[in-house]
Amino acid sequence: MTEKKDNAVPLQNALKIRARAKSKKPAFVRPESWRYDKFSPSWRRPRGLDNKIRRKIKGWPPGPSAGYMGPKLARGLHPSGYEEVLVHNLAEVHTIDPITQVARIAHTVGKKKRVQIIAEARKLQLTIVNAKEIKPPEEAKPEETAEAEAKKPEEKKVAPAKKTEKKPKGKKKAEKKPKKEAEK
To answer: Which sequence spans correspond to the domains of the chain?
Structure first.
């Protein structure tokens, strides 16, 4: 616990420096993406011999380099200053250190397990970065369902409608007629 307090001031300074560096960093775009529509603006490393961005020619946009990196202390941290841990199930929730880490629920986790993970995290006083308020499914009591069914009037049963084949839209092609045999 003392490690977090001793490390708090340099970490806060590192987060501020990282935020400042990020604000000054340009948006790195793919070379020539502004010229050709076929190129998306997402960054691709220039590899050509004459490429101006690779050669860092004056007047051309900058490319990514180590100079834009933030402080080593703040790398990989959530903006809150905590380390993110990806959680897939309840067992992984118990491995999180609430002093230095926060949880992020994986996108593949379904609603049912997500509710259980959020409930368990609240018991352990953990922070979840991407927690949304999800109401747990209300379990119907057997007494209430029986009463509700008794009050409903009986519904008439209707035969399902027949499915009709959809005809293709467009021009109808003339059917090919068999060629007549040569005249006698």
So the answer is: 76-137
